[in-house]
Write a structure and sequence with these properties.
alpha/beta, 6-stranded mixed beta sheet, 11 helices, 12 strands, globular, signal, PhnD, Phosphonate ABC transporter substrate-binding protein
Length: 301
């Protein structure tokens, strides 16, 4: 009897979810942490202006989370409809509920690649030349759910340094997002820190896209103050995800809008992506399987 009751309740919840999707009046965008809230809201303002007419909704709302996990939990709870994630953030969602969201698109770098790098930086005036100089020093990570700022360094650095990260460095910690991490490195809180960049273009410019580039463009970072000490293997560009239960027609309209955005509004495209990219390309779960497996083995869900 209990089993039948549970099945009935589940069916009613599914019907309620479908009805909600069909009558959606508000489209909710989650924005992961990493830079200050005012800049994130400004970057996504163009979506607030454009999407209502495209999707046929009354309003588009932005929800800037304090950290990565805020958006992850919003997507798992069904209170967000779309977000741009790092691969590790998506892996966390997938491991908790593989059916919560669908990865539909990712960015293509200006050189045609579909990836980016974890980049370890330190203050130039400290005189560090290589990873060997950092033994026994303090290393900062961006966010526990960041791919480039935590997962990938945790997995790939040991091969380079010959020891687990927490044994090689005297201390590790989190900077509270990519932007703040780099500021803490400049301040001297950390001897070095891991952030993200395209690896395309010039270091002095902060590369063509990524956290360093955004900070340079905002005038809060001078790349002459930093030196790059390590770069990871290529990381899959993070996915654009939509809530799986979202109405199919709305998914199609949204995806079509995004695919065309680099041509219809290059400024908006650049703003939400944080730098220069070529276009979007379609992706699915398989593209992120290596990161899902790495997260499961290293961090867990």
């Amino acid at each position: 009897m209990l089993k039948k009751t549970l099945l009935a309740a589940t069916a009613l919840m599914a019907l309620a979810g479908a009805a909600h999707a069909e009558n959606l009046k508000e489209f909710r965008i989650g924005i992961i942490g990493g830079e200050n809230e005012a800049d994130r809201l400004k970057s996504f303002q163009c979506m607030v202006e454009k999407l209502p007419s495209v999707l046929g909704v009354e309003k588009v709302s932005l929800f800037p989370a304090a950290d990565y996990d805020g958006v992850v939990q919003g997507l798992l709870g069904g209170t967000l409809d779309y977000a741009e994630l790092g691969a590790s953030g998506y892996a966390k969602i997938y491991l908790a509920n593989a059916n919560a969201v669908e990865p539909i698109l990712t960015t293509v770098q200006t050189d045609g690649s579909h990836g980016y790098y974890s980049i370890m930086v330190a203050r130039k005036d400290k005189g560090y030349k290589s990873l060997a100089d950092l033994k026994g020093k303090k290393l900062g990570f961006a966010d526990p759910d960041s791919t480039s700022g935590y997962l990938v360094p945790l997995v790939t650095l040991p091969e380079k340094i010959g020891a687990p990260v927490k044994e090689y460095f005297a201390e590790t910690g989190f900077g509270g997002g990519h932007e703040n991490l780099v500021l803490e490195v400049v301040k001297g809180t950390f001897d070095a820190g891991t952030t993200w960049g395209s690896g395309v273009g010039e270091f002095k410019d902060g590369y063509t896209s990524g956290n360093l580039r955004k900070m340079v463009e905002k005038g809060i970072l001078n790349m002459d103050d930093l030196v790059e000490l390590w770069r990871s293997p290529l990381i899959p560009n993070g996915p654009i995800v939509v809530r799986t239960s979202l109405d199919a027609d709305m998914k199609t309209k949204f995806k079509d809008f995004m695919v065309k955005l680099p041509e219809t509004d290059p400024a908006c495209f650049s703003a939400i992506q944080g730098g220069d990219f070529k276009s979007y390309t379609e992706v699915g779960v398989d593209f992120y399987k290596p990161i899902i497996d790495a997260r499961k083995a290293t961090i867990g869900g």
